[in-house]
Amino acid sequence: xxxxxxxxxxxxxxxxxxxxxxxxxxxxxxxxxxxxxxxxxxxxxxxxxxxxxxxxxxxxxxxxxxxxxxxxxxxxxxxxxxxxxxxxxxxxxxxxxxxxxxxxxxxxxxxxxxxxxxxxxxxxxxxxxxxxxxxxxxxxxxxxxxxxxxxxxxxxxxxxxxxxxxxxxxxxxxxxxxxxxxxxxxxxxxxxxxxxxxxxxxxxxxxxxxxxxxxxxxxxxxxxxxxxxxxxxxxxxxxxxxxxxxxxxxxxxxxxxxxxxxxxxxxxxxxxxxxxxxxxxxxxxxxxxxxxxxxxxxxxxxxxxxxxxxxxxxxxxxxxxxxxxxxxxxxxxxxxxxxxxxxxxxxxxxxxxxxxxxxxxxxxxxxxxxxxxxxxxxxxxxxxxxxxxxxxxxxxxxxxxxxxxxxxxxxxxxxxxxxxxxxxxxxxxxxx
Amino acid sequence: xxxxxxxxxxxxxxxxxxxxxxxxxxxxxxxxxxxxxxxxxxxxxxxxxxxxxxxxxxxxxxxxxxxxxxxxxxxxxxxxxxxxxxxxxxxxxxxxxxxxxxxxxxxxxxxxxxxxxxxxxxxxxxxxxxxxxxxxxxxxxxxxxxxxxxxxxxxxxxxxxxxxxxxxxxxxxxxxxxxxxxxxxxxxxxxxxxxxxxxxxxxxxxxxxxxxxxxxxxxxxxxxxxxxxxxxxxxxxxxxxxxxxxxxxxxxxxxxxxxxxxxxxxxxxxxxxxxxxxxxxxxxxxxxxxxxxxxxxxxxxxxxxxxxxxxxxxxxxxxxxxxxxxxxxxxxxxxxxxxxxxxxxxxxxxxxxxxxxxxxxxxxxxxxxxxxxxxxxxxxxxxxxxxxxxxxxxxxxxxxxxxxxxxxxxxxxxxxxxxxxxxxxxxxxxxx
Lengths: 432, 432
Known about the structure:
The structure is a homodimer. Chain A is of the alpha/beta class. Chain A is 29% helix and 25% strand. In chain A, the strands form eight sheets. In chain A, strands 5-2-1-9-21-20 form a six-stranded mixed sheet, covered by helices on one side. In chain A, strands 13-12-11-17 form a four-stranded parallel sheet. In chain A, a hairpin with a 2-residue loop joins strand 15 and strand 16. The termini of chain A are far apart. The interface between A and B is large, with 68 and 68 residues.
């Protein structure tokens, strides 16, 4: 393997994973670097945050995915800096030389300069994020059950989701459904069906990247589940007491962030000009200006579709297609073919967003779908792309279970229960 | 419900849970208090620590278990102090009045006065303990894969389990089996089959509470799996470098504690004399001296079987039997029958310990079993007692999967990956 060109792939998300797998027969030596030991099936992460799935159901060790691929090696490490001149990737604790670099580290949360909001409104990118969200969501009902003050109880039972993209819609729909259908019987002092779920969106419709008709359908379905949808609304502050929307104060102890993302910081070391959100303006072949051995793929790449002039969306199918595209270029180059590649072309097969148990909206090959049929399509596609046969069985079973008995299987509060979310709850009840 | 006597059950383990459930038709009002929101099926916790099961597979919200029991209420809170005079239970943030108190808070780790060992050798009691153990176990191989120094690599691949009771035996057997069978193919630089697993025991045999013949069988099976069993051995120090066993230094970066337990601290507030390990010497009816409305059950109770003069063992079946026994007394008292109860009698139906995939030893109704048949018995019993039908299906499936393909389904490193276990690993490899 040592005479072969060394391809370093940074990030084991959809882009990096499919790139690495597609290179399985190429005459290259591959090192996949990730700071986590697992590939995470991000589209189902909200199901972990809302206690339907366990982290292990939607994650698979990257090492195991590549275990039978002899030309690939997996390395647990944090990539910090790219030295494009020396062709080196600097990790937190080491250096890797590369012949070709594929950057696929994705996006992280952005609070638009209000980083202090993060403590009050966690986002959803990693397993740990999802477990923290689950902890807060479940603890809110526990604390409300013990709360004697009406206003405080109301604030504990008010859930605000900021941002109505697919993740925000999924979170808000599922949370409202859980409060109304799954758990009412479990509590004695509170009526969980009175919980408020607010979904705040800055544009004039939910799912703004979807077709307008689908946005309307999605909003109907959300409202049927009891979600209060606030459009054209901007959050101006988040603090201990709740959220400020424009001039309105909403007392809420549970705020979740699904609004902004920005590129992972490593791109700042590439020495090229970036987009405002940090994404990398790539060339037609997904290389960066000035370096035709450095590729940027997935959400991290700002790539304009040549025919339509529109941006390639930051979705899993685009990342997968980019990963495979770059793998084809690299396989050819490894054989000495340095010719110009035809530019990357995104094939839009549609998009789907789920809203609650057995509800979804989407377009597949141009066809608009909503309701149960869309949900079935969504479920099939997600199971198909889920890595690992075992995971697929388990996820199908858990969904079937949740569907039949309206229960969430993973209602665990882990981590520090004593740690107050905002402030300590009041004494339970007085002694007689 | 308000005229009924108030039974406060502290702890949602086996004892508390079965006591609460057995009171379902009693004319009492029950409050179950636990600092965690879930009942944990402790006997399978080692399967979480070794990445076969997810936490949610062996846990169920206590609230859900009692959701249809109208006379029961569940409260998330930490019990701190009992005031037997005023009949009050003090929580971290509130006070509960009781007519009857059932203490079932179980045991916690004990490092025999060497509490500084805890940071180096975590124990296994809670979900968070199991996830921390899993993190260390999986991270050890990841770090070894990147380690260039032979001695350090060897220390990273040396696993020491202290204490050869059921938990220690299960951990050591499973860890050795994983290193030898499940993961060798996933690594490129290291040979995981060379990993050492040491099991340290102070007495002259493994599973000292089992029959001596079974101990011998268990030791054979452990050694067949590659575990080095060290009997009559005492750990005199644990630090960054490893473990000191008598005068011998073993360089090991992964040490796990399965040796000592002591009573949870709340019993110290009962105002009575306790055993050396903090357990409560209960009377024949499981009440404490001086207070016939305060019961102590489960591992926390030091209870001598009247006929044999031997101690009731600290195992799940004993806790379950105690819980049901106390429930019968309380149900009678609620009806005005304050007569003397016949003393608690433990019915020993046998005990089983598993050693690896499809190996176990045990005695069931006096019959000695070992090997696959014992494992099957063990699996059946554990599935039978697992709370929640969904959990049972999932656990059966996961076991079937692990059995067929020799893979662990939950190989996730969560929590802070950057956090060094002991010290930072060296630079991966040098630049060329």
